[in-house]
């Protein structure tokens, strides 16, 4: 009789199933958890920690609880953390070595949270971050303790002296050149010889033949005189133009001491021109930190989205079946190795909770052919009437464009530290911000514009004691609303950020009141000292210029002789 059941095989199968179940129950979750932490930490450059991982078979999916991703540049803070995530994975695609997640949920998503333990991967990194932090010195306004006039002039290069030296050389060269040119012009001796010929002509007589000869000689003589006289007249015209030009330059040099005074005042003391930098002084460090952080994470993420380019290139190469490990075959609907089609997330901000979606998260955008998009918003929050953040990242082709937009209405913020300096601390205690901003990265070029209207602003008290602190205290105490604009252009590696704000004008006015009297005294002292210093140089210039009068007299004398000669010939 045949046996329907082979007990040896059934026993072996039962043992395998039992061992697989034991392995699954006791080890698989820890293996997944450890791998996420290991490879996630390697990718981020800081600790990635998962409290619990749970892989389920029916339905096939994965849950993670209490995930923290440390900030590599600030190890005691998390870049992001979330309480729970759950995802369903297509098992059939997994057998084809593709992780395709139709939908993923994120709960309790938060950014920039504090950690209990350092997230640094090594002590070396921790030390480097601390060193970088020590370099920040906070706000440092220009010194308004005005220097002494004599100290300023001791190291100043006066434009007046430079211009006077050059002009003196120009006048001397002009004088030398004209002296040489005079030698090439008809001189008094030559003109005198014309007079002798005229007198000789006047003494000639002798009938009709003599009269005809005299007329012919007179015509030739007249042509010679007019030719020489034309040269002298042209020289006189050229000389007059150059002399006028030199006179204008002397007038310009004479006006330069006043410009030297203004230039030195701008450089060493307060001036409206110098105050244009105060917006950058107040907000520049904070803006640079925000922008630098954004670019850092943008550049961190992008390589993972573009990795499909290599895979796409590999697919174009003809492969022999089963040749090598990585063999790609043409797919009716190509899919990348990793894809999360939709993420639904709840984000916890200080202002309140936002909800939104992220679509098409993949490591191979060129294969998927779709952009990663995100759209988060919240209305009537605890500390804001509206917060929205939308955008797209599209690297599916060689020429790419990524767009980011942010918009807030009545976002009530507090404790914004602008300066941690112990001498001049500046902090916004509270304010309500209306922000409208957009950024575009196209083929490596960055173009960003952000405008923020700050309402109901309350700055912290600033200790007085010196001119700068008193001026800043006065200015900020009078401000309840201001607008700040940031414009960024360039490349991701080399960009220029221009900051402007209405607060700069307030600070200018306040500082101007504090230092105006001191500045007026310094300006008057500089004027006196510069005038005394350049007075001799300008006097020497005028003396050099007066030396040109001799050339003028010589030209006038030759013109007079030529004119007289022309009159003498008029009788013929």
Automatic annotation (TrEMBL):
Kindly list any coiled-coil regions of this protein: 222-256
UniProt-listed InterPro entries: CHP03545
The record's keywords, sorted A to Z, are: Coiled coil, Membrane, Transmembrane, Transmembrane helix
The domain of life is: Bacteria
Q: Which residues cross the membrane?
A: 7-27
Q: State the residue spans of region: Disordered.
A: 117-141
Protein name, as recorded: TIGR03545 family protein
């Amino acid at each position: 009789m045949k046996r329907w059941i082979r007990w040896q095989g059934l026993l072996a199968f039962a043992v395998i199933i039992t061992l697989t179940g034991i392995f699954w129950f006791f080890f698989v979750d820890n293996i997944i958890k450890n791998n996420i932490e290991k490879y996630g930490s390697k990718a981020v450059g800081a600790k990635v920690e998962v409290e619990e991982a749970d892989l389920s078979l029916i339905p096939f999916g994965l849950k993670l609880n209490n995930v923290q991703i440390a900030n590599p540049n600030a190890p005691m803070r998390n870049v992001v953390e979330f309480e729970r995530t759950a995802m369903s994975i297509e098992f059939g695609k997994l057998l084809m070595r593709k992780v395709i997640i139709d939908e993923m949920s994120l709960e309790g998503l938060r950014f920039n949270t504090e950690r209990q333990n350092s997230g640094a991967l090594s002590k070396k990194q921790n030390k480097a971050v601390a060193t970088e932090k020590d370099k920040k010195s906070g706000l440092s306004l220009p010194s308004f303790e005005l220097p002494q006039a004599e100290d300023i002039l001791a190291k100043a290069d006066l434009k007046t002296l430079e211009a006077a030296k050059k002009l003196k050389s120009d006048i001397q060269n002009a004088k030398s050149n004209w002296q040489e040119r005079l030698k090439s012009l008809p001189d008094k001796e030559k003109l005198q010889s014309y007079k002798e010929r005229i007198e000789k002509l006047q003494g000639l007589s002798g009938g009709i033949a003599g009269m005809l000869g005299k007329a012919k000689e007179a015509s030739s003589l007249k042509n010679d005189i007019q030719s020489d006289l034309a040269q002298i007249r042209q020289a006189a015209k050229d000389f007059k133009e150059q002399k006028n030009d030199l006179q204008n330059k002397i007038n310009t040099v004479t006006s330069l001491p006043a410009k030297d005074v203004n230039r030195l005042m701008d450089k060493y003391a307060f001036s409206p021109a110098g105050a244009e930098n105060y917006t950058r002084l107040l907000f520049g460090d904070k803006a640079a930190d925000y922008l630098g952080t954004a670019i850092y994470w943008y550049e961190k993420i992008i390589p993972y989205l573009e990795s499909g380019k290599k895979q796409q290139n590999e697919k174009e190469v003809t492969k022999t079946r089963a040749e090598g490990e990585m063999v790609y075959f043409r797919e009716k609907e190509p899919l990348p190795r990793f894809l999360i089609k939709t993420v639904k997330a709840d984000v916890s901000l200080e202002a309140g909770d936002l909800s939104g979606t992220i679509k098409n998260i993949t490591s191979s955008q060129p294969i998927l052919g779709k952009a990663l998009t995100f759209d988060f918003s919240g209305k009537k929050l605890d500390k804001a009437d509206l917060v929205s953040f939308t955008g797209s990242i599209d690297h599916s082709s060689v020429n790419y464009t990524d767009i980011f937009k942010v918009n807030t209405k009545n976002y009530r913020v507090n404790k914004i530290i602008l300066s941690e300096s112990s001498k001049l601390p500046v902090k916004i205690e509270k304010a309500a911000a209306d922000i409208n901003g957009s950024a575009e990265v196209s083929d490596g070029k960055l173009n960003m514009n952000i405008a923020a209207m700050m309402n109901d602003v309350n700055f912290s008290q600033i200790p007085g004691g010196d001119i700068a602190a008193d001026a800043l205290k006065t200015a900020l105490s009078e401000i309840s609303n201001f607008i700040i604009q940031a414009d960024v252009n360039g490349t991701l590696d080399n960009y220029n950020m221009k900051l402007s704000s209405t607060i700069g004008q307030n600070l200018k006015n306040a500082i101007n009141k504090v230092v105006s009297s001191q500045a007026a005294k310094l300006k008057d002292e500089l004027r006196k000292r510069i005038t005394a210093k350049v007075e001799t140089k300008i006097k020497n210039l005028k003396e050099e210029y007066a030396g040109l009068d001799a050339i003028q007299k010589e030209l006038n004398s030759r013109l007079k002789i030529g004119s007289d000669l022309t009159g003498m010939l008029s009788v013929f």
